[in-house]
């Protein structure tokens, strides 16, 4: 299904990014496992990709750093020859109520979660336009649509990702570069493990399906967006949230 294609997945050493990398690899894509700091975990994912019969390498790059990002794209083209799929998955949270939120926490979250998407999309855009094909899949969040107290920085970044997705979809459409976003609800990963049990119970009452999602639920939709089955879709945000948002 994705044979001979190359996918870069940012923040792929664990959680949702890891599940996406493995799903795309299972369908035949070569994968660049981008990671921020944990090389051992990233190399584990590389080994798992190879067990699935695809090629992979791990690449350390801060998605908020333009030089890092450009070097990663250059290395990808030199090793695999193309960039067909970019999954902008890397993300962080630094939660606090607005009155207590430090300016640095605002900047850090916007830099990784929004500027990172801008830098990575910009860095692949020339190559994808030259190829006259490409898929950019941005990981937003349900809270980017609903808002969430205590997450002003994260919500602003994720809402920005949804707008950025629409803008890039319009810019790149004539070159057959399709740009879509996904908006996961609450997915069971290290990020949501940080929530205390009271917060988790309160959350479950807001999810019609009554349970947290799994990283594989998200990965399956990314695989669809990366495939020929989604060839007539661009600028969309698909919700994977157990029914939390029904637009
Ligand atoms: P996670 O914390 O397990 O994984 C995030 C990954 O991003 C980590 O591997 C981390 O090292 C990497 N990362 C962080 N900053 C980076 C940087 N500057 N450069 C490169 N990599 C960096 O979280 P997750 O739950 O797997 O989240 C993945 C994505 O899904 C994030 O964008 C997150 O905002 C989004 N999301 C998660 C949920 C959820 O419920 N877990 C819901 C909605 C959206």
Question: What is this structure's SSE topology?
Answer:
Blueprint: E1 6-9, H1 15-26, E2 30-35, H2 39-51, E3 56-60, H3 66-80, E4 85-88, H4 103-131, E5 134-139, H5 143-146, H6 152-172, E6 177-184, H7 190-193, H8 197-204, H9 215-226, E7 237-240
Parallel strand pairs: 1-2, 1-4, 2-3, 4-5, 5-6, 6-7
Organism: Shouchella xiaoxiensis
Family: Belongs to the short-chain dehydrogenases/reductases (SDR) family.
EC number: 1.1.1.100
Features:
binds nicotinamide-adenine-dinucleotide; 247 residues; seven-stranded parallel β-sheet; 48% helix
Describe it.
There is one protein chain. With 247 residues, the chain is of the alpha/beta class. The protein has helices at residues 15-26, 39-51, 66-80, 103-131, 143-146, 152-172, 190-193, 197-204, 215-226; strands at 6-9, 30-35, 56-60, 85-88, 134-139, 177-184, 237-240. Strands 3-2-1-4-5-6-7 form a 7-stranded parallel beta sheet, with helices on both faces. The longest helix has 29 residues, at 103-131. Residues 10-11, 13-17, 34-36, 62-64, 89-92, 112, 139, 141, 184, 186-187, 189-192 line the site of nicotinamide-adenine-dinucleotide (NAD).
């Amino acid at each position: 299904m994705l044979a001979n294609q190359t996918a870069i997945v940012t923040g792929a050493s664990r959680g949702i990014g890891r599940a996406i990398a493995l799903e795309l690899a299972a369908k035949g894509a070569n994968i660049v496992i981008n990671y921020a700091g944990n090389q051992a975990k990233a190399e584990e994912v590389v080994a798992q990709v190879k067990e699935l019969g695809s090629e992979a390498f791990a690449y350390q790059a801060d998605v908020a750093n333009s030089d890092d990002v450009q070097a990663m794209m250059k290395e990808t083209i030199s090793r695999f020859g193309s960039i067909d799929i970019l999954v902008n998955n890397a993300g962080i949270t630094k939660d606090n109520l607005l009155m207590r939120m430090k300016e640095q926490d605002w900047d850090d979250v916007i830099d990784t979660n929004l500027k990172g998407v801008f830098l990575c999309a910009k860095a692949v855009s020339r190559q994808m336009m030259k190829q006259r094909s490409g898929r950019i899949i941005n990981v937003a969040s349900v809270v980017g649509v609903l808002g969430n107290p205590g997450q002003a920085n994260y919500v602003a970044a994720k809402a920005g990702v949804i707008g950025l997705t629409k803008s890039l979809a319009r810019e790149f459409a004539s070159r057959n570069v399709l740009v879509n976003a996904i908006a996961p609800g609450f997915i069971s990963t290290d990020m949501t493990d940080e929530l205390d049990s009271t917060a988790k119970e309160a959350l479950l009452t807001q999810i019609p399906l009554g349970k947290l999602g799994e990283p594989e639920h998200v990965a399956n939709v990314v695989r669809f967006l990366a495939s020929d089955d989604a060839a007539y879709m661009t600028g969309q945000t698909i919700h994977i949230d157990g029914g939390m948002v029904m637009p």
